[in-house]
C-alpha cells in the first residue's frame, strides 16, 4: 500500500525519499557497484604506499597520511560513472515518460539519484578509511576538523554528481555515460595528491597548482593533520560551490529539454 503525504507541501520530500529508497534498493541488490568503487582506490593506495612510497619524498614520515585525501577523491570520481550509468538506464527504460504522467515532483527522480550518490559514496569512503587505518593512517584532527572534511567531501561529491547527471541525460550509450568520469579520475594524478607540486616540470606544475583537486587535497590534508588550512580552504570551497552551481544549472536545463 502506498503511503501518501498528509500535506501537499510535503509532496516533494515524499517523492524524493521514494526515489532515494528505490535507487538504494538497486544499490544493495547489486553490491558489486560499491565493491568496485572501493577496490580500485584501495589498490592504488596499497600500490603507492608499498611500491612507490619509499621513492617518493613528501617531507612527511607517514606517506599514507599524505596520500589518503587524493585516494578519497579518486573513489568519488569512480563512483560518478555508476551514477551516470544508472540515470542513463532509467532514461532508456522510459522511466521519465512514465513518471511524467504521475503526480510526482518533476525533479524527484534526479534528486533520488543525487542522494543515492551521496550515500553510496559515503559507504565507499568509510571502507577506504578503514583500510587506510589498517596500513598506518593516523590523524590528530578534532571533531570540528573531521566535520569540515566531511563537508568538503560531500560538496565535492555533489558537484561531480550533478556533472554525472548531465552525462547520464546527454549520453547516447551507457558506455558514453560512464566515460565522462575518466578525466575526473585522472585529475588527482596531476595534482599534489601523490607528490608535491614543487617536484613537477614548470607547465605541469602550473596546471597542478591551479586546478581544483590540489586545493581540495591540500585542505583535507591540513585538516586531517590538525593544522590550519589557511586560504586553501576558501579556494577549495569556491571550486566546489562554483562547479556545483554551474553543473546543477546545466543539468536542470538538460533535464527539462529531455522531458519537454
Automatic annotation (TrEMBL):
- Say if the entry is tagged with keyword Signal: no
Tell me where the transmembrane regions lie: 31-52, 64-89, 110-137, 143-165, 177-195, 233-251
Ranges for domain ABC transmembrane type-2 come to 32-258
Compartment annotation: Cell membrane; Membrane
- Provide the topology term for how it sits in the membrane: Multi-pass membrane protein
Keywords on record: Cell membrane, Membrane, Transmembrane, Transmembrane helix, Transport
Kindly name one Pfam family recorded for this protein: ABC2_membrane
Q: Which family does it belong to?
A: Belongs to the ABC-2 integral membrane protein family.
The protein, known as: Transport permease protein
| Organism (species) | Saccharibacillus alkalitolerans
